[in-house]
Amino acid sequence: MTSSSERIEIQGLSRSFSGRAVVSDVSLQVAAGQVMCLLGPSGCGKSTTLRMIAGVETPDQGRILIDGQPVFDAGVNLPPEARGVGLMFQDFALFPHLTVAGNVAFGLVGDKATKLRRVEELLEKVGLSGFGSKHPHELSGGEQQRVALIRALAPKPRVMLMDEPFSGLDNRLRDGIRDATLEVLKAEGAAVLLVTHEPEEAMRMADEIALMRGGQIVQRGAPYNIYNAPVDRAAAAFFSDINVIRGRSTGALTETPFGAFLTPGHLDGGEVDIVIRPQHLKIDFDRAGRGPNPTVSEGSPARGIVQRARYLGHASLVEFRMEFDGSILTASVPGVFLPKPDTVLWLMIRRDRCYVFPAA
Ligand SMILES: Nc1ncnc2c1ncn2[C@@H]1O[C@H](COP(=O)(O)OP(=O)(O)OP(=O)(O)O)[C@@H](O)[C@H]1O
């Protein structure tokens, strides 16, 4: 069933190229006013999914509904222009013979003054006031991209499909343009499906993230949930560097140099990966060969030898070779902390921030 607030609904969408499944049984819904990010590594099938919704790629199987109306199923296949969606793809192209204002006004209806107002309003939002009479060839790549963006937004589409729309912009511009775009889309109440391979972009833009891998959606949820409750080791690793401590679960317990972990639900005798992000390791000083006392929340400390330390601006990253097995663990510490190589320090891990998965 399609509830009335769902603007985009896809059901069991699949597509193969030369016998290779690129999108397999993908289903998702995007409601009015919602920004959904389709996030995943290069080649996982994000763009193909978006292109099928846009109508520029034909699915092998599945259904696509826009505003509750089928635009693709066994008996229907509407062309892109009949689907009522706004498109912003990587390979945008402006009309070279039209001015910037002409480009932005292209899909607009209404009297000239209304169109002009809308064009001016949008140009201002993306920092291009006064550019209306220029032609595309007079603009930088980033400026052209911003024009393409507002051209897609101008007719206030009820559904907006965006494929890496900010990828060509330099970092300084990107955050501002993202925020302006989000503001426009939210103000219009559009349903947005945005494809990106950048976790940070998805975290910043999305109300909900659909994490894709190998042609399938492996996890869906609000950014907070996806980041803090990853479904598997690869999902955790997609959002940040991770540390992995391998152990063997016996009787629902896994012994590690950081103490025993409760690992219920894992195969008895099976290997498990205890995964922790660098910011959830704690560093303490060596006190003549002794470390801090064990605690309930952090277990036992383990000794590590500093390999190298780097300052990243907001934090410092310290790499340790662990005494217990020679493995490398990385800790991130807010601010400046740059111990010399070969310094002996103690590491503890925040147990509430560990994830346990079957060994990869
Ligand atoms: N028309 C096509 N013919 C053959 N193979 C294709 C075609 N379109 C896409 N593919 C292949 O399907 C796979 C998924 O492509 P897709 O563009 O959907 O990935 P993606 O997740 O969007 O990646 P990226 O972020 O690199 O764009 C890739 O291996 C790609 O080479």
TrEMBL record:
GO terms for biological process: quaternary ammonium group transport. Keywords: ATP-binding, Cell membrane, Ion transport, Iron, Iron transport, Membrane, Nucleotide-binding, Transport. Gene3D superfamilies: P-loop containing nucleotide triphosphate hydrolases. This is Spermidine/putrescine ABC transporter ATPase. Residues 8-239 form the ABC transporter domain. It comes from the Bacteria. GO terms for cellular component: ATP-binding cassette (ABC) transporter complex. It comes from Cypionkella aquatica. The lineage of its organism: Bacteria, Pseudomonadati, Pseudomonadota, Alphaproteobacteria, Rhodobacterales. It holds the Pfam family ABC_tran.
